[in-house]
Amino acid sequence: MTTQSAFGRRLRRYYGWYTGSFLAFVGLLAIGEQFGMSPGVIGHVFLFATIAIYAGIGVMSRTSDVSEYYVAGRRVPAVFNGMATAADWMSAASYIGLAGTLYFSGFEGLAFVTGWTGGFVLVALLLAPYLRKFGQYTIPDFLGARYEGNVARIVGLVATVLASFVYLVAQIYGVGLITSRFVSVEFEIGLFVGLAGILVCSFLGGMRAVTWTQVAQYVILIVAYLVPVVILSYKVTGVPVPPAVYGSVLDRLSAKETELFVEPREIEVRERFGQRAADYEAKIAALPDSLEEERRSLIERLNRLRIDNAAAREIAHAERALRDLPKTPDQARATWEQARVEAAARSRPPPRHAEAHPGDTPVQKRVARNNFLALVFVLMIGTAALPHVLVRYYTTPGVVEARRSVFWSLFFIFLLYVTAPAYAVFAKWEVYNNIIGSSLSLLPNWVASWGKVGMVAIEDINGDGILQLAELRLNTDVILLATPEIAGLPYVVSGLVAAGGLAAALSTADGLLLTISNALSHDFYYKVVNPRASTQRRLVIAKSQLLVVAVIAAWVASMRPDNILFMVGLAFSIAAAAFFPALVLGIFWKRANRPGAVAGMLAGLVVTLYYAVRTHPFFGGSMAQAWFDINPISAGVFGVPLGFATIVLVSLLTRPPSQEIQDLVDYVRYPRLPAEDSEAQPDSVAVRRRTQS
User: What pLDDT, on the 0 to 100 scale, is given for residue 676?
Assistant: First the structure.
């Protein structure tokens, strides 16, 4: 205990110096900007300095010890494990996507805050202390021991890789987005620049390096998140406490919404978008003839422009339109349907920020409410079942520390989540007051700079040269990153926000990469393929798998499959359906057995994936095929209850687990001596032997 206390004091001293040095570094850059340092230099310094810090920690934490590589030696104090868990948890979705979702969805976006926060309550009550009592290295380890064999382990392995990979793609996408904007490189190049920072930490030192890097990354991301919104709060209200004062701005914003939505030019613009949606609907109905007619029309227009010696810009625009025209009726149907949906959405006023479950009819309101509740449910259950989060509680010295680290995790996450609604309100207030209604020739620089990376688009559909609300299209992920520029803050604040976003994406990507590679090397190679593999060989396999998975994830992210928040939400649905029923029943119900667990995990996983594919446009699906109008991000709402029901039913119809396994459940569930609680178990066999004795 004395050694552990000294270790904790040493960590507090190190990270205290680190935090002070980082704040001084930001201050020096701010002074440099005042003396003429260019935005490009500031962006490069933030990017490469922070990556260098993470790489340095990774190099200093390198290890070849199995326990250090997989679970950081099981000696991470609760406070620091809470910081590392918060960084691991607060991914690009929380950091970048949450403020944007609240910006566009208002009240409905609170489903993410409620679900994610509530999930940690489930972690503390149902899973973290019991998994730490069990010991071992991974979640499939628990499934393999509790459900007697490698079948449950392999199903858990597949679900771990799938959920973590989808989540990982979202993080690497966020890395590419940040680096491409702030270092002025192509999106695809930005992906691999950020990937290098991810790999240095996880490749060299495993969980040990990732843990201490994530603590450093939490400091950067929380400072970067709070500084701009505190400045913006002071600028708008005169009070630098965003959560306390954004309510008054929300009242003014509601009045501004009423004014904008009934403005005559805004109504005209929305009517034009409505007409465009109707035109696309007519063209879809007239396929394939409408495609040929569209092609003839574009060719005739292009020839006429050339004959009339039109401006080169007009000719180039006509050539591009002809080149981008769909080649087949099926392609035209998909492309035009997507355009129709977008035009129809822009023909309607956005939901009012403070309105709960918006809709024009009682049916629409009911659908909005059901989707809100379904999303809260999936995010809560998914949070409690994410392998890369649960494995963090294997790293604490004992069960008591595991419980404490859940508290600290919630506290450190709370600092960001309580501020996110204020971010959305202040950003929307700035856009509605200072951007909407401006001349297109006088728009601020951030509109053009973010437009170059496809995050902002403007279409003057009524040709009046004035920007109406419906003519501005913002990507969800741009709200937080562009807020300092939207508010006219110094560029060093923009660089700080980007560094924080990079820290959030890298910290979660590190944890996810490690979870996937450990599952493949430990749960598949060591536990199934070659149980006699040496320590050195196991680590070589883990690191090689890490590299392969990282490159594949970067390639998938380069295809830009969807916005960050949807990809993360899908990962939560997969984790919730595949793991939560098996883990909870495995801890609290002795009768749960191997056939039940395997059937339940497979049933929940298959139904969740089937529903996501059936309803999401990226997979060729449509909401016309949805069940109860539930959005694909909440697909797990069908998989979780099916998983519980299947495990219970199949377990009752088949033989109960052995007495040895029932004793293991007792050991995990009930307290023992303090010394016994804090001692790590070397393997599941030792757990069972100890239980029997």
Answer: 43
Question: Rounded to an integer, what distance in angstroms lies between the CA atom of residue 89 and that of residue 177?
Answer: 19
My answer on whether omega of the bond before 288 falls inside 30° of 0, hence cis, is: yes
Instruction: Give CA separation, 320 vs 1, 324, 326, 334, 403, in Å.
Output: 70, 6, 12, 19, 59
Query: Using CA atoms, how far apart are residues 272 and 606, in angstroms rounded to an integer?
Result: 43
User: How far, CA to CA in Å, does 121 sit from each of 150, 407, 409, 589?
Assistant: 30, 9, 11, 20
- Token duo for residue 281: 């609907």
For residues 446 and 482, the answer to whether their CB atoms sit within 8 Å is yes
What does the H/E/C string look like for 522-583? HHHHHHHHCCCCCHHHHHHHHHHHHHHHHHHHHHHHCCCCCCHHHHHHHHHHHHHHHHHHHH
Tens digit of each residue's pLDDT (9 = 90 or more) over 158-191 = 888 888 888 888 777 777 777 776 666 777 777 7
d(CA 646, CA 601): 9
DSSP string, 261-290: HT-HHHHHHHHHHHHHHHHHHHHHHTTTHH
pTM: 0.80
Q: What are phi and psi of 342, to 5 degrees?
A: -65, -45
pLDDT digits (tens, 9 = 90+) for 458-500: 888 888 888 899 888 888 778 888 888 877 788 888 888 888 8
Instruction: Pick the more confident residue, 128 or 195.
Output: 128
Hey, what are 164's tokens?
């973590």
The β-bridge partners of 472 are 458
**pLDDT for 674 beyond 80:** no
Identify which of 242, 225, 236 has the alpha carbon closest to the alpha carbon of residue 97: 225
Q: How far apart are CA 456 and CA 563, in angstroms?
A: 14
Q: How far apart are the C-alpha atoms of 293 and 276, rounded to whole Å? A: 17
Sign of the alpha-carbon dihedral angle for 178, 169, 229, 441? positive
In the chain, what's the furthest Cα-to-Cα distance? 95
Task: Please tell me the predicted confidence (pLDDT) of residue 50.
Answer: 81
Q: pLDDT, tens digit, for every residue of 275-287?
A: 999 998 998 988 8
Helix, strand, or coil (residue 638): helix
What's CA 380's distance to the chain center, in Å?
14
Find out whether 43 and 182 touch, Cβ atoms under 8 Å.
yes
Q: In the Cβ-directed half-sphere of 18, how many Cα atoms lie within 13 Å? A: 20
Q: What local confidence, expressed as pLDDT, does residue 203 receive?
A: 61
pLDDT of residue 683 exceeding 70 = no
Q: What is the pLDDT of residues 414-436, one digit of tens each?
A: 888 888 898 889 888 888 888 88
SS3 149: coil
Residues counted in the chain: 693
